[in-house]
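Journal club side-thread
Mid-discussion, someone asked how the predicted structure for our own chain would compare to the paper's figures. Pasting it here so we can look after the session.
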Amino acid sequence: MLNLLIKDFKLIFPTQKDLKKRVLSSIFYVLAFVCFVALETFLFYRILSEIKNYQNAPIAFMTLFLFVVSIGMIILGVFRAKKLLFNVDDLRQLTNRPIKNNQIILSKLLFLFLIQYVTSLCFTFPLFVSYGIVMNKMIYFYYLALFYPLLTFIYEAGIILLLVYPVKIFMDYLKKHLIIQFVFTILILFGFCFLYSRVLNVFIQIVAQNQLDSLLNVSSINHLIHLKKYFIPIHFLADVFVLSTSIELLYYLCIAVGILILGLTVGIASFNYFRNFHIQSHTLPKKEYQFKEKSVVHGLIKKEFILLFKDSNYLLSFTGLLIVQPFLVYLVIAAMNTIFQSGVFLYYTSMLPYFIPFLDILILTIFTLIIHQGANNYLSMEHQQIRIVKMIPVPFQLQITVKVAIPFFLS
């Protein structure tokens, strides 16, 4: 079981051979995660400090934040479960070893629980700490908060297992249709930019313009209190952990256990079907591929698009980022300039007139380095095939022009 868990860990967190890249990527992800949690905690603490005197308002905002975190955990869990359950190379290795099917499924579910619990705890525990500080909770409140991700995993795992196989089928469809995949990715990235701009706007109004009171008026608070009952089943758990009620725990368990049983049934059946289908398809004779004569430029363009679109993770990290990065840079620079040109920061920046231009240059440099890292990976993705590229009777000027022109066009 321990070896299976280690194998699943390497499957979710593949290590790079280059130690320098491994360290830099780890530092970047840790800093990004810490900044996101800090922003989440800061917004929640400021809002809670302003509305703590309104009846039922603190628990309503607590439920809202926990509900958003739960949705994020479900989305993250679906992609993690897809890697764990439907990885072809992993199934090929496990098929050749005398390991029982129930041990494989149990190890993958156990690892999914561990990684989901740790991630959820990192997002939710700061919220409970902030709530406890503002509302003067006893010490046992913080201890009970450690068990919150354990209970939320019951229903989150059920939804994850229900969605993972349809998501896999949909992603396989996108891989076969590169144009649809690209359009879908761009829509996701632009949606992320829109949501990011809204959150950033709220952050600016709180920090720079001190307009929290205008955002949290009586009508908006009453509207959120009314919506709290629709955050099913999170509002049951919020009442249990915050208000120390017990009957809501029974309601939650009835809903969550039912979803979990349904999810386990569908998820395990999908895993067994995919595993058996993969074994059968692996033994079938492969169809002969009929080559069609195309022009040299068409072949080079097709090769570059395959490199750009063959990996969905790479599509989000580099190809799609080429298009949306100008919008992200504009949002971040505009937000930083607004913050440092108003309020108490204006006094300090007036003594350092070149601080804001240097800050803008720093932000541009950071985003440029992100794209630069993706460009380096893009240029080195051909690996051993670079020898073939050098040997084919095509002028290197044409190859370089096509390789540079496509990312330049996307940007």
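Post-session note: The mean pLDDT is 79.
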